Amino acid sequence: MKFIYTRQFIKEYKKLPQDIQNKLKDKVKLLEKNFSHPSLRIKKLNMKIGSVEIWAGSLTMNYRFLFSIYEDYYTFLHIGTHDILNK
User: Fold this and answer.
1) How far apart are alpha carbons 37 and 31 in whole angstroms?
2) Average pLDDT over residues 35-61
3) Top-confidence residue, 82 or 7
4) I want to staple 80 with a disulfide (CB 3.0 to 4.6 A). Which of 16, 48, 58, 84 is the partner?
5) Burial letters for 40-58: b for 16+ Cβ neighbours within 10 Å, e otherwise?
6) Which of the 8 DSSP states describes residue 6?
7) How many CB atoms lie within 10 A of CB 65?
8) How far is CA 81 from CA 33, 34, 50, 70, 74, in A?
9) Which of 7-11, 12-16, 31-35 has the lowest mean pLDDT?
10) pTM of the entire structure?
11) CB count, 10 Å around CB of 72?
12) Mapping DSSP to helix (H, G, I), strand (E, B) and coil, where does residue 15 land?
């Protein structure tokens, strides 16, 4: 599996507190090993970009990340507080 980070994701990531940035690094490693790990709280959202489904994962109870999966590519789209689900 390969990870791609959009410009928007990187921009949002840089604005996060350092502890949340570190959490993302840990969660990406976990995602790579076990997509279904309970602490990731992965769920498929009821939205798509074209035909590609959007997924949400949890960093903490307050911070989320949105991503898509296409073949063996995970594309990280947004990261932030729970309100990113409204983007």
Assistant:
1) 8
2) 91
3) 7
4) 84
5) beeeeeeeeeeeeebbbbb
6) -
7) 24
8) 24, 23, 25, 25, 20
9) 31-35
10) 0.89
11) 7
12) coil
Q: Is 34 exposed, middle or buried (0-12, 13-18, 19+ CB in 10 A)?
A: exposed
Structure token digits, residue 81? 């507080």
34: helix, strand or coil? coil
Q: What is the mean pLDDT of the chain?
A: 91
> According to the model, what pLDDT value does residue 3 have?
96
Cβ–Cβ < 8 Å for 41, 59: no
Query: Domains in the chain, ordered, with CATH?
Result: 2-80 (3.30.2310.20)
